[in-house]
Amino acid sequence: MNNRQFIDTIEHNLTRACGVAPGASVVVALSGGADSVALLHGIVALTEKLKLNITAAHMNHMIRGEEAETDEAFVVGLCQTLGVTLETYRFDVPAFAERDSLTLETAARIARYDFLRRVKNGVNAEYIAIAHHMDDQAESVLQHLIRGSGLKGLTGMDYRAGDIIRPMLSMCRKNILSYIKSNGLSYRTDSSNLIADSTRNRLRLDVIPYIKENINPRVCESICSAARLLSEDEAYLNEIASNEFENARLNVGFDRHKIAALPMPIRSRALRLAIADAGVCVDIERKHIAALCEFLGARTGSRLDIPHISAYISYDAVLFSPIFEREEYCVPLCIDTPTTVSGFSIIARESDPNTAVFSPHIACMDLDKLTLPLTIRCRQDGDRFWPIGSAGTKKLKDILIDKKIPRHERNMPIICDASGKIVYCYGLCVSDDVKISKNTTRMLKVSFDKECNLRYN
Hints:
Blueprint: H1 3-17, E1 25-29, H2 34-45, H3 47-50, E2 53-60, H4 66-82, E3 85-90, H5 93-99, H6 104-122, E4 127-129, H7 134-146, H8 151-154, E5 160-161, E6 164-165, H9 173-182, H10 199-214, H11 219-247, E7 254-255, H12 256-260, H13 264-277, H14 286-295, E8 303-306, E9 309-314, E10 317-322, E11 330-333, E12 339-341, E13 344-351, E14 362-366, E15 374-377, E16 384-385, E17 394-395, H15 396-402, E18 414-416, E19 422-425, E20 443-450
Parallel strand pairs: 1-2, 1-4, 2-3, 4-6
Antiparallel strand pairs: 5-6, 7-10, 8-9, 9-10, 11-15, 12-13, 13-20, 14-20, 15-18, 16-17, 18-19
């Protein structure tokens, strides 16, 4: 691959595979190594043609002492030479790893991507360009295979994943080094990459070279070709799963019988979509999906906790809710004084009874029947309530079950009078003994506005 072919490949991958439009702003992750130097140099060569706005970003992980300092000085000089704006950042990754019980590799990755996104947001860029190439792809796929990954892990990295783009993913390391050499570019070598002390380094330094020498000299190309084919299969299965996932969607939750009837490859993907729909996208493993598949046949009221999320069975539905610690609160509710609690903005005002609203989310009560002061609190075990039209008080828990209120929505705000009696349950109604009537002359209207999309534990 000559210089022209290298630049043409970068352009094709940027505009076609990554979807970068002319005039876009791109942050280029610049470690100072050969790959990132070649990427920056190639993108700069396209700046005028594609009208790109380029910012380089370099993070000193504070792992390699003086060597890291020299890396930082190198990228500063490189960006000055190329006329590229550079953002630098120093972060004590070893301390972060120790504090959060992470490996250095994991801690460095978390810190690096956090920094890159802060730079992206700071310069209003659309993309972050990473210098991953074909050899990196092969290492990733092989690592996932060894760890027993499912199909998704064997598809490897994408040219574009959200705001992350990889314009060199179709290039092998050999072609990148050839471009570096033909342009007389200097670069830094990370000494930690030359020590076989991690799975990826062992694959890079020992396993893949052995396969190249003894089994298949084009092993990286072969692995990447297989990954592309598997990616097509994965996309097809995901499309089917997405359709079935939407077909199983109910007003609240998903039809558990429809999901349970799906073939396992589609069922597992539909469950992952349901979990993601509830806002959880990390730490969900195959064993958790297997547990959910079995859980679909559980009885009403059953609950299953997996990382970051709870699943509930409510009659024919399965519901998913992020796990939050149960919020405990009990605060005064004063007339004409706004109160904020549990994600709600609440205001109580004396109003004309003729403006009464009969809604489970607005409390309209006869003010003369209330014993002030009022408080607003979370639900507690043993609570009893007298719903409008019923013969008397009942356990609130039984009322919620009878009305098929999902378990994760049962920690609703409750208004109590001075004696502690419940006069209103959010999402239900006011108590029968404080309801307004034709004889009501003064009405208290309490309005609840959600400040966020709540899911109760």
